[in-house]
Amino acid sequence: MDLIYFIYFVIHIPPTLLMDLPALLPMGSLPPIFRVLPNFYLEMSGDPLIAGAMDLHGTQTQFTWFRSFLAMEELFQLPMFITGIYLLRKNSLYVPLLLIVYGTHVTTTMVPVLATVLATPETATGIVDKGSPFSSLNPSQFSMLMSSYIPFLIMPLTMAVDGARRILRLMNQSIARTSKKAFEASQLVGHEDRVAALHAIRQALQDNKAAILEANKLDMQAAQALVDAGNLAPSLVKRLDLASGDKWDSMLQGVIDVANLPDPNGIVSYARKLDDDLELYRVSCPIGALLVIFEARPEVVINIAALAIKSGNSAILKGGKESAQTAQQLSLTIRSALAKSNLDEYYIQTVETRSEVSSLLEMDEYIDLVIPRGSNALVKSIQHNTRIPVMGHADGLCAVYLDEAANLNKAVRVVVDSKTNYPAACNASETLLVHSSLLDTIWPKVAEALLSNNVELRCDPETLQPLGILTQSSSHLVKPSAPEDYKTEFLSHTIAVLAVPSLAAAVAHINSHSSHHTDSIVTENQNNASIFCRSVDSAGVFVNASTRFADGFRYGFGTEVGISTGRTHARGPVGLDGLVIYKYLLRSSSGEGHIVGEYGVGEGKKKFKHTEIQEKHSGAQEASTAIARRSASMLNYHIVISIFKPAKPSANTFIPTSLFADFPNHPQLITSNADPTPLEASLIPARTSKDYRLGHIGVNWVDFIIKNDGSRSEIANMKRAGSAFRAASGKFIPTNEIRSGVANLSQGVVHILRESRGPSRKDADSPPKLLEEFSHEDGTVLAILAVPSYIGPSDFLAWTSPAADGIQHLRIVHDNQPNRSMAVIKFRAKVDADAFLETYNGRQFTPMEPETCHVVRVLSVRINTLDVSSPIPYFADQATIMSELPTCPVCLERMDAALTGLVTVACSHTFHCACLSKWGDVRCPVCRYSQTMMVTHPPSTVQVDPNARCSDCGTDANLWICLICGNIGCGRYARAHAHAHHEFSAHLYALELATQRVWDYAGDGYIHRLIHNRAEGKLVELPSSSNTINGGGTTNGESSLGPGPDDMRAAEKVEAVGLEYANLLASQLDSQRAYFEEQAAELRTALEATRAELSRVKAAAEERAKEDETSRAEASERASESEIARVNAQKRADRMQELARKLEKDLKAERAVSEGLMTRINKLQEAEAVGARERADLQERLKDVEEQLRDVMFFLEAKTTIEQQGEQSELAGGSIIVPPALSTSVPQKGSSRKKKGGR
């Protein structure tokens, strides 16, 4: 079309200049040559408009309107021709706008032009008369004008329509492009932000309830008018009503239920190790931009929007036209809520017309999946008109089959509920199949129950006949069925009933007539149930259950997009799991990366390992044993949260009295890495040396409410998934019995205190009394010291869902550590806490990350409120056996020797063993101190940084550095600023810069350690026996700079003793080596013998396995042959039975014919006997007549003879006697009669 438009614009430029311009301008304004073409045109066409514009006929003002049209062509259309050529060459987005403007303008101007041409009279010859108002046209001129002007009307009209269509497509393309961009931007939005958006939508719906219900009322009124006019089914009106029953509250609760579901994205469903340091994972992820087309049910807008937001998909929604106003109001509400969240406000969009849907179906570059909910015709139409994948949701033609082994009570309950629970739903049954053997037993009872619920029965003749009296009493509800009834979705109290002779016939009917939605069988025969479930090709196949169970909420999905009857990745009720797909993540942790060229067949090529990535413990029993041993040796912990009381009360802060008290729900959690507000800055004490641990403290809190009956099976409607050691595959499905939120606790410090195993430092036998008023000695409180930041509250709940039944309170505490938090869990009973400890301690949070879960038992939790001027307290003193856990400088987790291995390097910095092992440098990660340099270049004297100064007073004498935070202060023999820092921060260890000795403030003494001798570089003990802190062995009252001569001599003696001991130990080890080598040789001999025996046994086993395999193959072959023979025999038997039935039927027919023939034969025989008797009588009569005739003939002949002879004849006067006949078998009548002649 663009090419046609291009040619159209090009070819219209010359006529506009050469034809219209001369007609517009006065006669003498242009050279005469410009008049040639118009004159030639007038001679050919006799155009009355051009002639009038050139003053060749009519009055001067008669054609002013046409001259204005010509002026518009020169001033408006000519520039548009040039602009159109340019825009079409550039394929500009402004082409549709130009087409609409030009096409509309020219179409409207061509109407009066054509009217004028049609009004011009026709004559045999065209005349242009100056004096006449109009010229006349001959037929050829009229045809020429119409053939030139009509295209001027058709082409601009086409441009206007095409431009409008393109504008509409661009608008729809903008909708699709915006949805795709919103989806791409949302991939960086966290799960917590999505949950917050859902809560915002729920609140916005509640705030706009009046406006939404008012719009819904208008939709209801319009729908009722359609029902009254007979254009809409009454059952569809019920779907529109948002105010009926608890539909509104259920819709709002559905949003909360979806928000509380675990995040479906990021779930690892496949993990395989391809090679060392090369791991492959299959991880769930969103689909993309969705186009969802659904029926007129306004609450579906909210359901699908909630699922799309939760699953990470953007969505474009198109509802039924009957709910247009409600859907529009809901869309505005959702958009306003999203505008206040971290999601794009156009993340959820709605369209209203079918033309918009048709345009969107062409945009496969933006739309990733289409989900239509409606009739089969709608789904097939969409599938045939788009290249986008379609997840079909068609009609709900559900069937219930009553098997010959059905139970009466189950049959009545299942059939009635499937039809009457909600007839307008897509999972309501529309067809009832009844086995022929139940027509006189169960079927009448089921029919009676349906009729009592006002269900119309459309029965085939076989099911109609047994109803009897029911048909008479409920004649208006019992009707004969038609073939199309078995393919109709009634959506009302109507059901089609059909009798089937067998299970196979029922399955064949369902597969050929249903929509593959949901079908159910009622039977007590497990084999029939199994055959039905395997044979019926539907998304849901039930046994002894109502089809109404086919629902995402009833399945535990929270809510659903629809029920897919297709064969895509999701089938049946489509919830969150159906709205995600997966991607493969390949991770190489090798220093050089991995390339494919290194793998293959041949020398020097690597082989793939393809091993599963297993759990840390291979089996449940092994894991239980290992964790039980570890739990028995675990120490007890105490948690103290020191919080500074705000100078001014704030609505966004809360100071609790207990960590398990009721918490408020603040809008959002304040993080420590954000810049403090002036109010928050006022809470920070103005100190020269600030404690690095001080920061904002926030709590994600969850309270599990148990009902009054104490039934733990109903707590929060949680489900266990997987065994105790597959906790990561659990699923968390909360309900109304959970309260959750976030709370900000101002600024403070979280202290974690651990009890020591030995006695107290001051030999105090009494237990710690510091926290006894907040004691949880019942063992119901546990803590996970470090929860990674990528594990959100919902993810944590999903991860721990197998133990959720026993949890009472959950508190996830956030402090100044940006990538870690601490989870404190209070259980209902100690047995629940013990089970959690055994299950989760030492497990990985996710298979993709190395972090493991460290669970500790907490004896007490205390909230300590401080004034702004108060120092942060120190909780370990001489009378207690508790000490505060420091943090690892590498991973920032708490360092606890009871849980993980610790290592202290020569510079006295301590790390986790695993953290330090990853450090590739020989220098300390904190101070960059080189241990190898100390060995190869031992210093003669300890060099102190000349720039080192006390951070408080600035002195450079007797300096100590805190090993926890690096603060430098002067010693207690100066101004004691190092000790003051210890009292302020509770940091226990400080290093003396001059001697490199470490002081333990809690133990009030130096720590025993080995350092290098400054003279020889040997390892010697500190503190030195020849040096004391009181100045003994020092010179000029200065601190000792290391070991003295006495220490060196003692070290030499120790070295000599050690050398002698080493020689003795070497000789003993030689003898032990010889003994164990002899033992090893004997073991090797025994091992070789065992291996030989094992090889023999293995060979025998392999031989036996081969024989068994051969036997199994022969048996299988015989079984196959037997099965084939059985099948053939069964076929022959079936054929013989069929033949026997046919012969029996023929025999019965032949017998009936024979009986009829025999009856006819008997009648014919009787008739024949009667005829024989009649014939015999007739023969007798005939003989008698013959005799009489003979007598008469004889008499006549004799009379004639006598008369001829006369009286003289000797026979005259005589008598004639006829002798009797010769035969005597039959007496003849009249045989004795005498015949006398006359005279």
UniProtKB/TrEMBL annotation:
Gene3D superfamilies: Aldehyde Dehydrogenase, Chain A, domain 1 (3.40.605.10), Aldehyde Dehydrogenase, Chain A, domain 2 (3.40.309.10), Zinc/RING finger domain, C3HC4 (zinc finger) (3.30.40.10)
Pathway the protein takes part in: Amino-acid biosynthesis; L-proline biosynthesis; L-glutamate 5-semialdehyde from L-glutamate: step 2/2
Class of enzymatic activity (EC top level): oxidoreductase
InterPro entries for this protein: Ald_DH/histidinol_DH, Ald_DH_C, Ald_DH_N, Aldehyde_DH_dom, BRAP2/ETP1_RRM, EXPERA, G-glutamylP_reductase_CS, GPR_dom
Reaction(s) catalysed by this chain's protein: L-glutamate 5-semialdehyde + phosphate + NADP(+) = L-glutamyl 5-phosphate + NADPH + H(+)
GO molecular function: glutamate-5-semialdehyde dehydrogenase activity; zinc ion binding
Every UBP-type domain range: 925-1026
Regions of compositional bias (Basic and acidic residues) in chain numbering: 1101-1124
Protein family according to the UniProt entry: Belongs to the gamma-glutamyl phosphate reductase family.
Organism: Ceratobasidium theobromae
SUPFAM superfamilies, sorted: ALDH-like, RING/U-box
EC number: 1.2.1.41
Subcellular location: Membrane
Alphabetic keyword roster: Amino-acid biosynthesis, Membrane, Metal-binding, NADP, Oxidoreductase, Proline biosynthesis, Transmembrane, Transmembrane helix, Zinc, Zinc-finger
Domain RING-type: 888-928
A Pfam family the protein falls into: zf-UBP
EXPERA domain residues: 1-160
GO cellular component: membrane
Membrane topology label: Multi-pass membrane protein
Its biological purpose: Catalyzes the NADPH dependent reduction of L-gamma-glutamyl 5-phosphate into L-glutamate 5-semialdehyde and phosphate. The product spontaneously undergoes cyclization to form 1-pyrroline-5-carboxylate.
Disordered: region residues: 1023-1048, 1101-1130, 1206-1239
Main location class: membrane
Domain of life: Eukaryota
Protein's GO biological process: L-proline biosynthetic process
Protein name (database record): glutamate-5-semialdehyde dehydrogenase
